[in-house]
Design brief:
single chain; 167 residues; Alpha-D-Glucose-1,6-Bisphosphate, Chain A, domain 4; seven-stranded antiparallel sheet; 4 helices; COQ10_START; START-like_dom_sf; Coenzyme Q-binding protein COQ10 START domain-containing protein
């Protein structure tokens, strides 16, 4: 089993970063233009039982990838998806959102196994790690830009809502 982790700090509240991930089209937003992937469906949001299905292209060959969200779920703090069908022997992706003052640390943790055992993991694993680094750098940059560009409006709307609630 291989492990990959990447994190970034986003200058936005955790609630806004979580809200970004709740959007219906978030998977399309987070898919890099160079990656030959189609989002087939997304059902159930981020909670347990939610399903995301993708079609990856390996040259002319389509590969179905289905990820199901498990019980490792705390709204606003973390969610986790596991590949139930796809190209990996095993794949577990944990998304963690932690407060750092007024900012949010977004952490992507992936544990995966390649088909074929230890030899592909030793020989191909470093290549997969490099591809994951590029993928998650892109995804975290998209998340950061979206959240930071909406931060002030989000904070203002929360102040207004909280102010109205105190009346």
């Amino acid at each position: 089993m291989r492990r990959f982790q990447r994190s970034t700090v986003i200058d936005a509240p955790r609630e806004l970063v979580w809200a970004f991930h709740e959007q219906a089209d978030v998977l399309e937003q987070l898919t890099p233009p160079w990656l030959p992937v189609e989002v087939v469906r997304r059902e159930g949001g981020l909670g347990p039982g939610a399903v995301s299905e993708f079609r990856l292209w390996l040259g002319p060959v389509p590969i179905r990838w289905v990820a199901t969200h498990n019980d490792d779920y705390e709204p606003g703090r973390c969610f986790c998806d596991r590949q139930s069908q796809g190209p990996f022997a095993d794949w577990l992706h944990r998304h963690i959102f932690s407060r750092e003052g007024d900012r949010t640390r977004l952490i992507d943790e992936v544990e995966y196994a390649l088909p074929g055992g230890w030899l592909p993991e030793l020989s191909v694993g470093p290549v997969v790690d490099a591809q994951l680094e590029r993928l998650f750098a892109y995804r975290q940059q998209v998340t950061k830009q979206w959240c930071e560009s909406r931060r002030d409006a989000f904070l203002q709307s929360n102040r207004t809502t909280k102010g109205l609630q105190s009346l």
